[in-house]
């Protein structure tokens, strides 16, 4: 970012102030940035300012912070944080960033910082306290320090909470189904149901919510993989097509899977 004097009187000097945000520079070490300055001077209509410097890494992290596993597992992880500056930096506390409340992380995930070597090395711990809904998302942990220029350091956290059963896809986009007036036509698509742990999965029932939609399921790998086929024989009237299939399994945490169907119908020639 640059701030500059827009008008320089004849025979006088002007000033250009340049501010570089180190957080937006990747990695550490030497950096070089260029700024193009344009003026109304016909002899110096344009020139380039070159800014060079060194970025010093504050903290080194033993690995990326990630909490991954199944919804009912007792998940935990930890990383080692090392101060890379020549002077001590004490991490005084740790907290979640302000946007995590809506994700219920405060009550579901424990967060703790431990001192290994004061001013030099710390251990950051995360653990799952309660069952969490399956899904993948990111959040941020904030380290609070006693360094006057680095009061806070943000650490990204990846959450990957797996379901016991995977439905692929869980939403079918059919696009446009073109039909002839008075000549019914059937459109087929395939989906897969996969047990992600164990081999005792059973598909008990698959029920579409429309009369013009049928579904059949066959077992590919016993107790593990099932393949389903959705067959749609739409009315010849042009319209948006919306439907859903409820799939019932024997797994307690995945008793009901929902497969959404989205598409449209168009008469040929229209």
Q: How does this structure look, described?
A:
With 270 residues, the chain is mainly β. The radius of gyration is 29 Å and the shape is flat. The model has no long low-confidence stretch (mean pLDDT 88). A hairpin with a 3-residue loop joins strand 9 (109-117) and strand 10 (121-128). The protein has three domains: 2-55, no CATH class; 59-162, Immunoglobulin-like; 165-267, Immunoglobulins (Immunoglobulin-like), CATH 2.60.40. It is built from one helix and 20 strands. The protein has one helix spanning 105-108, and strands spanning 2-4, 16-18, 29-38, 46-55, 59-61, 65-70, 76-83, 91-96, 109-117, 121-128, 135-147, 150-162, 165-168, 171-179, 187-195, 203-208, 213-221, 225-232, 239-249, 256-267. 1% of the residues lie in helices and 59% in strands. It has a four-stranded antiparallel sheet. A four-stranded mixed sheet has the order 6-12-11-8, with no helix packed on it. The longest helix has 4 residues, at 105-108.
